[in-house]
Each structure stands twice: as C-alpha cells, then as structure tokens.
Design brief:
Layout lengths: L8 E6 L5 H11 L2 E4 H8 L7 H8 L12 H10 L1 H25 L5 E4 L8 H5 L2 E6 L2 H12 L3 H10 L3 H6 L3 E4 L5 H15 L2
Parallel strand pairs: 1-3, 1-4, 2-3, 4-5
Helix pairs in contact: 1-10, 2-5, 3-5, 4-5, 7-8
Length: 202
C-alpha cells in the first residue's frame, strides 16, 4: 500500500505592504501550518528574547528599549546609516531563526507547511528547502500607500525599506506562482489562494 501523502513545503514571500500576511492566513485557512520567520524574529527580540544578549553585546545596551525589547526604530536607523550593521544583525538573528523554523516545520509532520519569509529571494538556501515558491506582488505605489496607512510612516521611510528589499523582478524570477494583489478585494484574493491550493494539492 502507498504511504501517506507528504504535504508540500511552500515558501511565501513578497515586499512590504504586498499583502503577504493576508495570503499566509488564507493558506492557514486552507489547512497549512504557518512558520512565520518575522514572528520568530520578534519573539527572539521581545523582552527576555534569546537574541537580546548578543544584540546588546554587538550594538551596545542602547539597542534595547525601555520596555526590554529590541528598539526596532533605532535598529532600522542604524541599518540605513551603515549597511554593515544590517549584516551584523542578520549574522546574529538568521541562525536562530533558521533553527526555530526547522523545529516548527518538523512538528507539522506530514501537513503542508508555509514558510513566510520576507527575505526569501535574498537567501539562496531557501529555494532548495521548499517545493514551491509563492510570491505576493503589487505595484510600489500600492506598497507605499498601504504601509503609510498601516504603520504611520512617511513616504521616504517606506521607499527606503522597499529599496533595501529584493526587487519585484527578482522575487518574480524565483516564483512558481505569483498573486498580483493590487486592487483585489479580500474575497477575490482568498479565492485566488484557494484555487492555487487546490491546484498544488491535486
């Protein structure tokens, strides 16, 4: 007899403000187990987080805010001012994030796992770890509008973040499927996700 069907490993990515988190939730609604790299990062840098001692040693105690968590605004300013700071940050966080993603994925057993990875296109090893790559795409102007509304940032701040991320072309080049989330109503977006899920799980 054939053994149980093993679920897919799906890498999900998209630029800031693309709607990636909404698509991730739709995939969970379809039955996927979500492994969220950004959520893991936030846990590692929350008060008492495992990454904080190394971050404070690398960047100084002021990198930890009054609430005991990583001061993300300060860290973002450092990364913009000094590209080497971003590399040093990633050198600390990425191995920790990688280990926790492996543990969470292993706990999913045979279910389909969605790895929500903002920097998937920038990390060559991810392509080899997943069966499919799904990219959520939209125009840069739409990204700017959404992030300004959601985060309260000004336009230059949003565009600086976009400039530091992989280009839309680079993300689409690694994609097995692209959802163009520009002007889509929520029900239409969910319908696209469910149709893709059904196609990939035939």
């Amino acid at each position: 007899m054939a053994g149980p069907k093993i679920g897919l490993r799906i890498g999900l990515t998209g630029g800031i403000g693309s709607g990636k988190s909404t698509v991730a939730q739709a995939l969970v609604d379809c039955g996927a187990v979500l492994v969220d790299a950004d959520a893991i990062s936030r846990t590692l840098t929350a008060p008492g987080g495992a990454a904080l001692p190394a971050l404070a040693a690398e960047f100084g105690p002021d990198i930890v805010g009054p609430d005991g968590a990583l001061d993300r605004d300060r860290m973002r300013a450092l990364a913009f001012a000094d590209p080497g700071a971003k590399t040093r940050l990633e050198r600390i966080l990425h191995p920790m994030i990688g280990e926790r993603t492996r543990v969470q994925a292993a706990a999913a057993g045979d279910r389909t796992v969605v790895f929500d990875v903002p920097l998937l296109a920038e990390s060559a090893h991810w392509r080899a770890r997943v069966d499919r790559v799904l990219v959520v795409d939209c125009s840069e102007d739409t990204q700017v509008r959404r992030v300004m509304s959601r985060n309260g940032w000004d336009e230059p701040a949003v565009r600086r973040v976009i400039a530091q991320q992989a280009s839309r072309e680079r993300r689409r080049a690694i994609a097995d499927a692209v959802i163009f989330n520009d002007g889509l109503a929520l029900d239409a977006l969910n319908a696209e996700v469910h149709a893709l899920w059904a196609h990939w799980h035939r």
